[in-house]
Amino acid sequence: MSAAGLNPIARHRARCHQVRGRMSDYLDGELEQSLVQDTERHLRWCPSCRRVLANLRRTVEGLRGLGGPG
Ligand SMILES: [Zn+2]
């Protein structure tokens, strides 16, 4: 992958996209350890992904709160 040629903003967007794609697995605890660390490192300096994660967490907890099937 030649991400080095992209400008910093494009690289940042690509990272956000990657991180957001794994967030549901991250919340479910189904992400492998190296990806968890990678995700947390990104979240530390990316407030917009933190907000996405907070919204997703609320949605997931809301679904569980409904009782669901079973
Ligand atoms: Zn991000």
Keywords:
70 residues; binds zinc ion; elongated; mainly alpha
Please describe what this structure looks like:
The chain has helices at 8-28, 33-45, 47-65. With 70 residues, it is mainly α. It is elongated, with a radius of gyration of 14 Å. Bound molecules: zinc ion. Zinc ion (ZN) binds at residues 15-16, 19, 42, 46, 48-49.
List strands and helices in order, with pairings.
Layout: H1 8-28, H2 33-45, H3 47-65
Small-molecule binders: zinc ion
Oligomer: single chain
Total DSSP E strands: 0
| Helix-strand topology string | HHH
Summarize the model shown.
The protein has 70 residues and is mainly alpha-helical. The protein has helices at 8-28, 33-45, 47-65. The model has no long low-confidence stretch (mean pLDDT 88).
